[in-house]
Amino acid sequence: MQWEVVIGLEVHVQLSTCSKIFSGASTAFGAEPNTQACGIDLGLPGTLPVLNENAVAMAVRFGLAINAEIPEYSVFERKNYFYPDLPKGYQTSQMAHPVVGRGEVDITLGDGTVKTVRIHHAHLEEDAGKSLHEDYSGMTGIDLNRAGTPLLEIVSEPDMHSAEEASAYIRAIHAIVTYLGISDGNMAEGSMRCDVNVSLRPKGQEKLGTRAEIKNVNSFRFVERAIAYEIERQSEILEEGGVVVQETRLYNPDLDETRSMRTKEEANDYRYFPCPDLLPLMLDEAYVEHQRSLLPELPSEKRQRFVDALGLSTYDADVLTGSRPLAEYFEAVQQHCGDAKLAANWVQGDLLGRLNRDGLDITESPVSAEQLGGLLMRLADDTINGKAAKQVFADLWECKGETADEIIDARGLKQVTDTGAIESLCDQVITDNPVQVTQYREATEDKRGKMIGFFVGQVMKASRGTANPPQVNAMLKEKLDALL
Amino acid sequence: MHDKTLAELARGLAAGDFSSRELTSSLLERIKRHDPALNSFITVTGEQAIKEAEAADALRHKGEAGILSGLPLAYKDIFCTEGVRTSAGSKMLDNFIAPYNATVVEKLRHAGTVSLGKTNMDEFAMGSSNENSYYGPVKNPWNPTLVPGGSSGGSAAAVAAGLVPAALGTDTGGSIRQPAAFCGITGLKPTYGRVSRYGMIAYASSLDQAGPMARTAEDCAMLMNAMAGHDARDSTSVSRNVPDYTQGLDKPLNGLKIGLPVEYFGEGLAPEVETAVREAVRVYESLGAQVIDVSLPHTSMAIPAYYVIAPAEASANLSRYDGVRFGYRCEDPVDLEDLYKRTRAEGFGDEVKRRILIGTHTLSEGFFDAYYRKAQQIRRLIRQDFLDAFARVDVLMGPAAPTTAFELGSRADPVQMYLQDIYTIAINLAGIPGISVPAGLVDNRPVGLQILGPHFGEAHLLNVAHVYQQATDWHQRRPEIKE
Prior knowledge:
Chain A: Belongs to the GatB/GatE family. GatB subfamily. In chain A, strands 5-6-9-1-10-11-12-13 form an 8-stranded mixed sheet. In chain A, strands 4-3-14 form a 3-stranded antiparallel sheet, with no helix packed on it. Chain A has helices at about 40, 55-65, 165-180, 220-240, 285-295, 300-310, 315-320, 325-335, 340-355, 370-380, 385-395, 405-410, 420-430, 435-440, 445-460, 470-480, and strands at about 5-15, 75, 75-80, 90-95, 105-110, 115-125, 130, 140-145, 150-155, 190-200, 210-215, 245-250, 255-265, 275, 280. Chain A contains 16 helices and 15 strands. Chain B has about 475 residues and is an alpha/beta fold. In chain B, strand 2, helix 4 and strand 3 (about 115-120) form a beta-alpha-beta unit. In chain B, helix 2 (about 20-40) packs antiparallel against helix 3 (about 45-60). At the A-B interface, loops of A face helix 9 of B.
């Protein structure tokens, strides 16, 4: 049978507020356990939550970025369950009246097609703490530093039909939240995690199949792999006439498989009800419009501008707007060197290639946008040639100089364009290689073009790579042809 | 000194008749002598009280004393007090030393008051008789076989017995007004949101309200001046100017329109209580007030609605007592499940467990709409009843409780006990203020007159209560205590 895959995602984005969503404790990552949890985060008797305005503003800006409705009225509710890293015995979240209503996100697929994924809603909630099992034999340690960290949970409609689409969707969400500056989007540190719902149904069937939910997947790659595994697993069951059980599964990246965590029978009844400690959130039009005025240029707008104003291909524009730091890096390089195409090629090719190889993020690049821009400027104005540029880039990467000019000077890489100097080099090479000159003269017209490369190479070698190759080429052709 | 009101003690301190230290140590002596029979205190903080009194005296010498400087009081053990055990009357928090002060405690400390300690209460404020305390029941000073009322029974008994001139209580369904009535003192439940809930251990957050318990309306007004006001740490506290509650206490009551809700004088009301309350209303008529019968048609639904909403909130509020971070933890749990189950089974008393179970049930899938949502609808109707009534009258009057104080152990059926709050509960659901003032004695058992007003009408309620207390002497009656 032909199966259709149906995928929906719940993406948890950690908002980059300075303090927690209901307390004044810091949200900085990596502090000693339990040093960033105040009485409110610990759930001490008598403490009360106070809503962080900034978390609300960030959620609203996200809503505006995905063209969502921002309801005037939203409500915080208590989601009740017991767990040692949940201090109050309930998580303050939103269910019936979330802060962000329906919206949509465009995703770009590998073949360049653009598809719209509908967003069901996005709601604010507090994160729980962390249970630590390592280093505690037979016991569990609790770190409540993360308890109360603001999360925006973005719930999609089941609009995706392949692992590729799901992955493109998460990248799009990642781009939006990083552009908005409302999250650092660092998946390794848990700033973005997602729950993936996967189900299969016979092609053409309207009704959704039974879904499995894969919890807490924390990298783009793992999302793709977990979905691929899950499609394989479910289609095997269905092909054999079996039934998929509705359950929660965990993806194990080491084994590249998902395994059952709990079935629906064991699922909790969360007993949601409005939190009596927090008044309903009322957002008037003026507030929403003010937040709208604070929106930066969004990825889709930037992509269009790169194509229209800078003349980049849609492919280049798409890659370069993949994240806000990357786009900003590219724009800085481009402004420095004045050549958008050259900047696009270098950022995508040499820079991203090198970053990838060293496992670095664009924000950790040893070569700054100013440095790369300075280098490309020298390439564009013919001060150096392409080969020298690669050397300069390598040196900048190794921190062997502050600017491209310093390295060019120190290593004498400046391109020789002085006609006299090039001419004498050419004469020298012709004199030193009589055998090759004879071969050139005896060759047919169409073979001479190729043979000239040998002489160019010799001249470049003699100039230690600094001669201007097109100039050398032209000069040699003139001199050799004169000998015919 | 123990017979004096807060206002009289303030004048005495100001005149130099006695020092705060003298006053404090004489009351501490009295607590030592009489409280073993009453059990109104869970914790007495004698040493700290003496230090605070000396500090207040020093301030007075420098001429920097405020009106409340050096005046002793006590807190219901539901208010967090820094460095002092705060138990909420529960075994669960028997070992809990609060690391901070509740906002009201902070405000009253700042005003210079001296805390003598923490008063006994029904566990987590659940009860109407103070028989649900882990620390044992409180005895009514008028008769030790009687309950003092609950859940602020410790505060009420301590004030009535002259162990302390004033104390703080909390009122979720009547827990200030009913014990005030049973012990013959004055107790005010302010408008919801008028006094901060920060640092007050939550029972039912949308109903809980702190308030003063003292001998007179004037004393309550003095305390309200220090307690009331917006608190940025409590999102439900209201940002609204705080009037001077002691101003206007003497305003004459000519033309005051009093509404008598017919529902508050029906079946279940003890005849002798009705007689006393009607007598009090006649006193008001003699002071120039006009009496009108009004109806609060949804009154009968108040108790059912309350016993859905309050336990629902409580079931969530009490989830944090799980043995993981603070408070009681069972011995040698075998696993997490066992830790939760035994901690909660051993740490909570029966009434608390009963309400957690009710709340968990009414919030659960399939029951939420039938119970919780319906109760919230009823709550809106009840609130509207009061708004309609206050469009016609200035205040409402009725009994604070259907009977006078009853015998310890006499209300074994929980539902019978819940009916104790029949006249007080609707007020919490509506969020309006209410005050109970002593208005008679039946067989040497005090009767409380309850006066209700519209939202933020507590200044007027205090005026209405004060003028009555100028005209009568019920608030001056004291239980006989063998010295």
